[in-house]
Amino acid sequence: MRRPLPDVLPIRWPEGLPSPPAETEQALDRAARVLVDGGLVAVPTETVYGLAARADDPVAVGKIFAAKGRPSTNPLIVHVADTPMARRLAAAWPDAASEIAARLWPGPVTVVVPRGRSIPDEVTAGGSTVALRCPEHRLTRRLIEKAGVPLAAPSANRSLAVSPTTAAHVLESLGNRIDLILDGGPCTRGIESTVVDCTSVPPCILRPGPISREQLETLLGQPVVLAPEPTDARQSGSAARSPGMHARHYAPKTPLVLSATAATHVADLLAAGKRVGWLTTAPDAAEPRRLSASRDLLVIPMPADPDSFAARLYATLHALDKRELATIVVDEPPDTDAWRAVRDRLTRAARR
Description:
Blueprint: E1 7-10, H1 22-36, E2 41-43, E3 50-54, H2 58-68, E4 77-79, H3 83-88, H4 95-104, E5 109-114, H5 121-124, E6 129-133, H6 138-147, E7 151-152, H7 167-174, E8 180-183, E9 194-197, E10 204-207, H8 213-220, E11 225-226, H9 233-236, E12 256-259, H10 262-271, E13 276-280, H11 286-291, E14 297-301, H12 306-320, E15 327-331, H13 340-350
């Protein structure tokens, strides 16, 4: 018998209310029961939707990998309700982790620390470290408190595809592979958390995200280095140090091209009779206006600031995948610290 699609339960917590409405509490209670029993629940965070399972149960964690089609060499981030829960999962708590947790949690930054004994090999791909995050989304923290266990939660989509920023994206990608979806509305940040290896000296950013290198250096009062360009751990057979380090990732079904000369690239594609989507931060410039006369071109205006661009990026790519385009062309963002996370996602989405 075919497994039914999961229920999608709206959860809301209006500002000013000391506790969530009764229907939200009921939805969280139901989700907590599913998690405690070893099931899979898609949960909202400020970054992207996560596919959650209890992190202390190897069988439950294995269901995440099966649902996503995720390689076992790609470790998972463990989400916690607060810093004390995080520290119980770590064998040691480096100074950098302490500073980040004190100043930036809850928030879109993950710390990599020595792994404690309660974390199964399945979570860390057998590695000696674990990635921990306390999400900004207060309903997800409340769910973790109700479940009473930390939650392993990668993005709630098929492996290497565009991450989901709405409950509808989750349903389209995973369908009946999971047990329940909590709909907390669109994600506000729109791209995955910054991942910082706190076991190295100096600390190292393994994955750029909403918290920039400059912010971390100011906070920590020391240099923060960047990991080398990602390599494909699936090909080497070795475990990744952190989630999200594969060379190709975050990719739409439609081929994506990141171009410093986007107008020329778009013009060539149109001349070849191709249907094109063009993400540009300058839609009113001369070339986008001239080329937009073509019926085969869809010009998508994108914000000129990196945070707003990031918040809109994945939803835009999901929408364009439904337009039967031959190619998506994206203006290459500036090579600056502020744009590093966006450049990272687009660069890997463009790899084939």
